[in-house]
Amino acid sequence: MPSLPRKIIHVDMDAFYASVEQRDDPSLRGKPVVVAWRGARSVVCAASYEARTFGVRSAMPAVRAERLCPQAVFVPPDFVRYKAVSRQVREIFARHTDLIEPLSLDEAYLDVSTLRTGLPSATATAEAIRAAIREETGLTASAGVAPNKFLAKIASDWRKPDGLFVIRPAQVEAFLAPLPVGRLPGVGKVMEARLTELGIATVGDLRLRPEHELEQRFGRWGRRLHELSLGIDEHPVQPDRPTLQVSAEDTFATDLKLAELEPHIRRLAEKTWAAHEREAQGEHGRLARTVVLKLKTADFHTLTRSVTPATRPGSAAELADIACALRDRIDRPADARYRLVGVGLAGFVEADSFAAQQDLFGSLAPG
Fold first, then answer.
1. How many domains does the chain have?
2. Can you give the CATH number for the domain in which 294 is found?
3. Could you tell me the pLDDT band of residue 199, with boundaries at 50, 70 and 90?
4. DSSP letter for each residue of 277-329
C-alpha cells in the first residue's frame, strides 16, 4: 500500500538579520541596511529589501555593496540577538510539531503530516506559524507548503517577502515543468551549463529525457535529476541532524605567508577545541577524530588538508600541532600569501562507541 504524501512546511525569515536591526532601531526602517563590518576584508551577512533593490546580496564583499549602494547604512552583526530571536521562532514551531529540521538561524523544515493542534490543514498551520512570528517577534516570515522538502523550499521563495505558497500533490508536475533547471537543488551554474548544452533548459525538458540516458551521462546524479524532474524527494525531515564538523576560521587584515600562520592556527585551535568539548559533553556525547585545515589564497582559491590520526587529539595543543603539520603539507611557493585560515574537527563518533573500539583494540594488543 503506497504511503500517504508528507506535508512539509519550509519557513524562511525575511531578510532576517537586517529585519532584526530595523525592528530594534526604528531609524533604520525603510532604509537600505547592510549587516556587515566595514572594510576591504568584510562580506555582507544580510541586506534589507531596500538594499537588495540596488543589487546588494549576502556573501558579497562589503566594498562592492558600498559601491552599489553608497547610501546604505552599515550595521555590524550581533549574533547574540539573532540567536535569541531564532530560539523564539523555534519555540513557535515546536507548538505544532516535534519534527523540525533547522537549516540555519533563519530557516527550517517542519513535517506536519500528523497535525496535533486541531488546525484543519498544513496550509492553516503555516498561516498560524507566520501569524505567531509576526505577533511575538515583530518580524515576517515566508512559508512554502508541499509534499516534500525540495518543493517546500522552492515554494517558500515564491511569494517573498511575507508570503505563503502551496504546492499540492496533484499540482507538482505542472508546477515544475516551466521552471529553469537551475531551480532544482544541486544544479549549480556548471551543471546548468552542461544541461543547456544538451538542450535541457527547463524541468519539463529534463523530464522528457529517459532516465537511463541521464544516468549514463551523470551517473547516480542522473537518476536523482530524473526523480527531481518528477517532483520526487524521499528525504525525511531530520530533527536531530548530527554535527558533521566544528571549526573556527579567521580572515586576516592583510594576506600572510604560510610561515606566518602558526600563531593564528593555534588561536583557532583553542576555539575549535572549546566547541568540540561542548559537543562531547552534550546529550549524545560525540567525539571527533579527523583534523581539518582550511586555507584561502590571496586569489580566493580554497585549499583543505585533513588527517585522521591513529590517536585522536586530546587537547587544543595537540589539535594545533596536527593542524600545523597539515600546513606543512601545502605544496605552494614560500612567498604565496593567504587571506584566511580555519581549523576544524570532523569524523564525529558516539563517545560510547569510541570507548568500546578503544577497549577492543587495547585487548587485541600484544602483551
1. 3
2. 3.30.1490.100
3. very high
4. HHHHTSSS-EE--EEEEEEEETTS-EEEEEE--SS---SHHHHHHHHHHHHTT
Statement to judge: residues 184 and 292 lie in one domain? no
Specify whether the backbone of 39 is left (phi greater than 0), alpha (psi in -120 to 50) or beta.
Answer: left
Where does the pLDDT of residue 210 fall: very low under 50, low under 70, confident under 90, or very high at 90 and above?
Answer: very high
Both 76 and 99 in a single domain?
Answer: yes
What CATH number should be reported for the domain holding residue 96?
A: 3.30.70.270
Q: Is the pLDDT of residue 282 over 80?
A: no
- Residue 311 belongs to domain spanning: 245-358
The 3-state DSSP class for residue 142 equals strand
Q: Are residues 200 and 262 in the same domain?
A: no
Distance of alpha carbon 66 from alpha carbon 119, whole angstroms: 46
- Average pLDDT, whole number, for the chain? 88
In a domain, 287, yes or no: yes
Q: Is the pLDDT of residue 349 over 90?
A: no
The annotated binding site for Mg(2+) is made up of 12, 106
| Residue 9 domain flag | yes
Of 313, 327, 218, 328, which is closest to residue 272 (Cα–Cα)? Answer: 313
Q: Is 107 an active-site residue?
A: yes
Grid coordinates belonging to 32: 537600505
Q: What is the Cα–Cα distance from 183 to 150, expressed in whole angstroms?
A: 10
Task: Mention every residue, 6+ apart, whose C-beta is less than 8 A from residue 285.
Answer: 350, 351, 352
User: Active-site residue among 66, 107, 135, 262?
Assistant: 107
**How far apart are alpha carbons 158 and 149 in whole angstroms?**
15
Amino acid at 118: G
State yes or no: pLDDT of 360 exceeds 70. no
Q: Which of 258, 262, 233 is nearest to 169 (CA)?
A: 233
User: Which residue would you say has higher pLDDT here, 289 or 364?
Assistant: 289
The verdict on 8 and 137 lying in the same domain is yes
Cα separation, 246 vs 259, whole angstroms: 25
Do 225 and 254 have their domain in common? no
**Residue 113 is which amino acid?**
S
